[in-house]
Amino acid sequence: MIEASISGILLMVRREDLVPTALRKNLNIDALVGDKILIHLPDLNLEIAGKVARTRFMGKEGFEIGIDYSDDAPEYWRECLVDLLPAPGEFE
């Protein structure tokens, strides 16, 4: 997790975590844009629903994946989640 806000989450996913070495040279995850997803945060015992809003290839670092929360997630809940998450630089 790179960043979290009241509107969504920005993730960094390493290419190695997605596919075997032989397929990495041609990997494109743009097809995920618009897909609904569910993220489970075990430390908070929380599930977050959303959809993939954007992806960006970051070279050897992997992919950034921008996720927007579902429309039915209350703004107060989103603000509380941001307060509970570690500050930037504390993510591992």
Helix and strand arrangement:
Blueprint: E1 3-4, E2 8-13, E3 36-41, E4 46-57, E5 63-69, H1 75-84
Antiparallel strand pairs: 1-2, 2-5, 3-4, 4-5
Offer a quick outline of the entry.
With 92 residues, this protein is mainly beta.
Structure characterization notes:
With 92 residues, the protein is mostly beta strands. Helices cover 11% and strands 36% of the residues. It has one helix at 75-84; strands spanning 3-4, 8-13, 36-41, 46-57, 63-69. Strands 1-2-5-4-3 form a 5-stranded antiparallel sheet, with no helix packed on it. It starts with a strand and ends in an 8-residue tail after the last helix.
Estimate what percentage of residues fall within beta strands. Answer: 35-45%
> Number of helical segments?
1
Cα separation of the termini: 7 Å
Average per-residue pLDDT, rounded, comes to 81
Shape type? globular
What keywords describe this structure?
single chain; 92 residues; mainly beta; 1 helix; 5 strands
